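TL;DR need structure tokens for one chain.
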Amino acid sequence: MTTSPMATTFTRFSSPVGELVLAATDAGITGVYFPISRHGPAPLERKDWVEDDGRGPASALLAQARRQLEEYFAGSRTTFDLSLSPAGTPFQRRVWDALRAIPYGTTLSYSELARRLGDLRATRAVGAANGRNPIPIIVPCHRVVGANGALTGFGGGLDCKRWLLEHEGALTRAIFS
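>> reply
TL;DR here they are.
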């Protein structure tokens, strides 16, 4: 199967939190989608997506993502080292970059994330950008909680968010602003 250089290639990945769909172009990973993802396209409904055939740069990136996710779920990986290419505004990309700086096993609040980005008044905008993160788990939006430590929205559902935070040992070590 021949695809254009920037076609989106996808593969399915079985995980402890359910089947994930991983998507990539030759430039990097573009998405990780849960079965209940609100912001992601269903691959079989997309005419411009092709299923991974094991060939090409996107296939190599997807294989690397699968391996690193397997290691994460096995407890042997705490950070991801992948080329990422999420579609988003410059502000969203700043937020997603800041998410990648939240250490494994910790949480922080939306307001603390806004403060780290230089504008405490941007808490709601930070929350909205966090909610639009197309690469959850790898870009750890699950590590952001409410100011009182409450688990708030997550594309994979709150049970999935709780599972990920328990997996990382983060539920009892929350950082509040």
